[in-house]
């Protein structure tokens, strides 16, 4: 017995763990048969054979299609082959995951044999699965749905950014080709794309920063004002200030679009006309952008106001009383007591406001569809990146450029959100636990 244990410790090929691992590598289920786990071996064997029989042809064609995107025009559809190839990769990853799990399972059972542990009975195996594997089994349907509903469209979009899929080259009449980073290069080298991209990207940043900052500042100012002890009828005032949030945003935007109409809108006709002023709100890019910023400030401040109002109620009053004893001014109490509490509790949500306005498609499209037109550009004067992507996709069919711009948008938001979240006090406090 001592010699047997010594031989096992040497780690040769005759060691059960290595034999079981090798057999599982050769074909799933063989390692389990070697470990005398017959039922488990049959399960892995049936799963593996079923997977190969049902998916082999599909995966074979899919992998060929994603590499070539077709070889015969009007017979092969490049988009369908690309989609089938992506699905094949996902299915193949699931198959590889089962294959790796089979190897680890066989090796783990073999190690248990080396340590002299008895083989578990069927009931013990079911109990072990329930205690350890049941949660994973229950989340598996949700994971599969997530992969095919969220991950697959994202992968498809990423793939299109590296093809030549546009209105002049579309299947099945033409075959698509992989073009590498040419679409991204076109955004910064070809004049019409370069001018449009930098103009729209700059306006998107300006729009995000100014519109979001104004709604935050206005919401903070009103929250501090209503929270003041000298203010009466607080509940009524809060109700009135939150009313714009209760109205659906698209309804408010359409109403504002009519109000800002330079011909029959109430702002020009009933207000500014008394001052002999007529502002081209919809035909001049500068005034259209100004109107959009004002509308977004109106639409966004109620949420920030409600957020800050709730946090202000939780600030300990004894801190203000201690500051009064020390002779602190209103500004000092605001700077050292109020703002730290507000930012600690709301910083992540405020960051999300910036990210939301960066992709705020509704207000841009519903107000004036990104117009007015700008000479030498294929985007409107008020288009932000997301509305430009919409036009490229549904109006001009430049799917490859739309996908490339979408990737850039995702990178900008991800990088911005990551670094901002890492610097917020709330995020750092959470990391301690």
From TrEMBL:
It is a multi-pass membrane protein. The chain crosses the membrane at residues 42-59, 79-101, 136-162, 205-227, 239-260, 291-312, 399-419. It is found in: Cell membrane. It comes from the Bacteria. The keyword Methyltransferase does not apply. Its main location: membrane. Residues 201-420 form the ABC transmembrane type-1 domain. This is Maltose/maltodextrin transport system permease protein. Belongs to the binding-protein-dependent transport system permease family. MalFG subfamily. The keyword Ion transport does not apply. Part of the ABC transporter complex MalEFGK involved in maltose/maltodextrin import. Probably responsible for the translocation of the substrate across the membrane. InterPro entries: MetI-like, MetI-like_sf. CDD domains: TM_PBP2. Keywords: Cell membrane, Membrane, Sugar transport, Transmembrane, Transmembrane helix, Transport.
